[in-house]
Amino acid sequence: MNQKTQTEKTAVQTVREVNGGKQPRKGFRETGAGRGGHLFEFDMIRCIAMFCIFLFHFNSIVGNNGILYSRLYRYAGRNLTLGQQGVTLFFILSGCTSVLSFRSLRRKAAEASGVSPEALSLKDSVRHVVLPYYGRRLMALLPVFWCAYFAAFVMFVAPGGPHEPWRFLLFGSPAGNEVPGSFLLTIAGFDGYLSMSGFSTSYLVGEWFLGAILILYLLFPVLYLLIRRYPRTTAAAVLLLYILYTELYPFGRMKETDALLRIPEFCFGIWYMQSLQKTGWKTAAVSAGVFVLCVLVPSPLDNMYSVLVQGIASFFVLAYLGSLLGGLGGKAAALVRKAVSALAGVSYSIFLVHHFIMDWVIPAYRGTVLQWYSWLRLFAWVFFLALVTAILIRHAASGAVLAAQKTLKKAENKASIS
User: Fold this and answer.
1) pTM for this structure?
2) What is the domain partition of the chain in residue ranges?
């Protein structure tokens, strides 16, 4: 058996185990080193979502700086902005990938205990599945966030004078309700989320999304259990509460930034991995029709309904197209998959750094008039800087985590010897 065949069999076995013993769907391909069992369509959707957010913020900052350009694309149709389109895809993907991570942990815990995943005790489930799941999610989000925050702090806050950095860290920005020790919220990743409610925090990067996704990850084990055991009842309850909360929303913050109003998208991702794991052409065709309708026809209802419907419809369409592209053979297709996988691997880092890179570069063009080629050149330059910065920050975060792990291991060894 050659090495390629052995690798493919290992990848298929990995997906079968992660999917609770189910065969991977037709068209499965491993999408890059270290990402075995990761579906190509997820990487593709992640890249598209990142580009939607990047393009929206780029054109918004270009417009805010008085830079004239005839076509500042900021909308994904008549109801959503490009930013909203990208964010809803990210929430759905987070539900999907959480299921993969959780199933993998359940399988490993069951193997260690010598029982089936369904026979795991509550104590073993909490200790060997739920807590490690939280650990994985936090380690995937926070170290990179801290590194990105440090870079933004050095660029924008530290030059403000000897006292400004300390005041900013302790009390946050001057506007809003001061929160003493607000930097603790930054360490936890909730500064941007709370700033949307008018609190004065030390927010610099990550926006409200980071805090929202952390809340959803916290709720995931309960949501996953409910969807597994009571799928219809859970779906009905989630939709009913979603409608009531949307219509009777009691807070002053933007609805789309409230984590509780993103639960349906997150739950859809869980349901997709639990019940479908693939999108057929009929579902994709109907979803394409719904998506076109959302794009062309303005909705009289609350914008949150458009976010949910257009987000789910676009996910089905992109998942189907991604499965087709992921199943293509040939060197060119394999090269595209590797490039998409590599870009998807740094998409979160790009999300963290793109705003302050734009705020650093674009104001230099304030008041100018851009032709289409000048706009494209500026976009490419800003994206290149964001990509390089994201890669450096991701490597810095990985190095810091490895160093911390080695230090802890040495301390444990010394403690055991003594």
Assistant:
1) 0.88
2) 82-277, 280-326, 328-418
